[in-house]
Design a protein that fits this description.
By secondary structure, this protein is of the alpha+beta class. The protein has helices spanning 2-13, 24-44, 51-54, 68-79, 103-117, 131-159, 162-186, 192-219, 231-241, 243-267, 271-303, 307-329; strands spanning 48-49, 56-61, 84-88, 94-99, 125-129, 189-190, 341-344, 350-353.
Length: 373
C-alpha cells in the first residue's frame, strides 16, 4: 500500500505519468469497436424482456428435487407456445415464469406444474402481471433518464463549461450503450431490477469524470499566462493526478457488486440480484474507463480547437525549440564567464572571472593571522 501511495503522490506532482491524452485516438478506436459490438448484439439478439414488461404468470414452487433443466422441459410442455424461463432459487425452490398467460390459462398450468414437479397445488404461488404495468415502468424509466441527462448537462455547463458537459454526456451514453449491449449478448432478462441498476450507474459513471474535470478546472486557471504546458498536457496531468483515486474508488465499489453478481446470483440463485448486479458491475467498470480514456481526452480535443489554445500551443512549442537550440549550441558544459581568465585568490585558489576584475582589498580580513597581502 505504501508503494501505491508513493506512485499516487508522484503522479499527483507530475513526476511520473502516462500520456492518456496523447494516445486518445487509440482509446477512441477501442471504444468505437466496443460500442459497435454492443449495438450489433442489441440489434441481432435483442433484449430478453422480463415478464414484468411482456405480461404473463410467475409460479414459485416450494423446495423440490427436480433440477432447473428438467423443470424447464416440463414447463415448456405445459405452456405450449408461450416463452418459459426457469430460475433456481435458494433452498431448492423454483421460479417459473411463462409469458402471455391470462387468468383463465394460469390455473390449469399451475395444476399441471404441481403434478409434474410432485408438489402440492396450494404450495405453488401464482402471480399474474399485465403488460400495461410493464409499459408504464418503461415509460417512466425513459422519462427519468431524459430528465437526468438534461439536468446533468445543465449543471456541468454551469459549474464547468459546455465542452465538459458535452464530453460527460458522450461518456454517459457510451456507458449505457455498452451496458445494454452486454445485456443483449449475455441474454440476461430485463426486469425492473435492471432498470434500477441502469439508473443507479448514471451517478457512478459521472463520479470519476467530475473529479477529473474539477482538477482540470483548477489546473487550467490563467493557463494563457504561462508557456510551460499546453491545455492537452495539463489535462493529461489532471488524469494522472487523480488516477490512483479513481482506481481505488472503482475497485472498492466493484468488490461488493461482484459479490452480488457471482455469489448472490451464481451460488444462491437469486434472480433479481443478477439483474441489478450485472448492470452495476458493467456500468461501474465502463464509467471508470470512460472518465479516463474518453471524457477528458475529448475535452482536450474540443478545447484545443480554440484560437487561444492554439496560440498557447505555438508559444509553448516555440519556447521549447529555443531552449533546445540553446542546449545544442553549448559545446563546453562549464559555466564560463565572459573574458574567463583564471585569477588567484588570496589563498592561492584559482577562480574564474573577467580579465580586469579587481582584487578585493578586504580579502585578508577575518583570517586567523589578520594579515593583508
Amino acid at each position: 500500500m505504501s508503494k501505491l501511495g508513493n506512485v499516487g503522490a508522484r503522479l499527483y506532482r507530475g513526476e511520473v505519468g502516462y500520456d492518456f491524452v496523447g494516445k486518445r485516438k487509440i482509446w477512441y478506436g477501442i471504444s468505437i469497436l466496443i460500442t459497435i459490438t454492443a449495438i450489433v448484439g442489441l440489434a441481432v439478439r435483442g433484449l430478453n424482456m422480463g415478464i414484468e414488461f411482456s405480461g404473463g404468470a410467475v409460479f414459485t414452487t416450494p423446495k423440490t428435487s427436480v433440477s432447473s433443466t428438467e423443470a424447464q422441459h416440463k414447463a415448456e410442455s405445459v405452456a405450449g407456445e408461450h416463452q418459459v424461463v426457469v430460475q433456481k432459487l435458494g433452498g431448492g425452490a423454483l421460479r417459473i415464469q411463462i409469458s402471455g398467460l391470462d387468468t383463465k390459462q394460469s390455473l390449469p398450468v399451475q395444476e399441471a406444474l404441481a403434478k409434474d414437479l410432485n408438489v402440492p397445488v396450494k404450495d405453488v404461488n401464482t402471480q399474474l402481471v399485465g403488460p400495461s404495468w410493464g409499459e408504464e415502468i418503461a415509460n417512466k424509466a425513459w422519462l427519468g433518464l431524459g430528465i437526468f441527462m438534461v439536468l446533468v448537462v445543465l449543471y456541468l455547463a454551469i459549474a464547468f463549461e459546455w465542452r465538459m458537459a458535452l464530453a460527460a454526456l458522450v461518456a454517459l451514453i457510451h456507458d449505457l450503450t455498452i451496458t445494454v449491449g452486454i445485456y443483449a449478448l449475455v441474454g440476461f432478462e430485463v426486469t425492473p431490477g435492471t432498470v434500477i441498476g441502469l439508473l443507479t450507474i448514471l451517478g457512478y459513471s459521472l463520479y470519476d469524470t467530475v473529479v477529473v474535470f474539477d482538477s482540470l478546472k483548477e489546473a487550467s486557471k490563467e493557463i494563457t499566462k504561462q508557456t510551460r504546458f499546453t491545455y492537452s498536457e495539463i489535462a493529461n496531468r489532471s488524469i494522472n493526478g487523480t488516477l490512483v483515486r479513481s482506481i481505488n474508488t472503482t475497485v472498492v465499489a466493484l468488490l461488493p457488486v461482484a459479490g452480488l453478481l457471482f455469489v448472490g446470483g451464481g451460488v444462491l440463485g437469486a434472480g433479481m440480484l443478477n439483474d441489478i448486479s450485472l448492470a452495476l458491475f458493467v456500468g461501474l467498470a465502463a464509467g471508470a474507463y470512460s472518465s479516463i480514456f474518453i471524457a477528458t481526452p475529448l475535452v482536450a480535443d474540443l478545447k484545443g480547437r480554440e484560437p487561444q489554445m492554439k496560440a498557447l500551443a505555438k508559444r509553448v512549442q516555440a519556447k521549447r525549440a529555443v531552449a533546445a537550440a540553446k542546449g545544442a549550441s553549448q559545446e563546453d558544459p562549464q559555466d564560463e564567464l565572459p573574458g574567463g581568465e583564471e585569477a588567484e585568490d588570496g589563498d592561492g585558489t584559482a577562480v574564474v572571472g573577467p580579465r580586469h576584475q579587481p582584487a578585493s582589498r578586504g580579502r585578508g580580513r577575518g583570517r586567523p593571522s589578520g594579515k593583508r597581502r
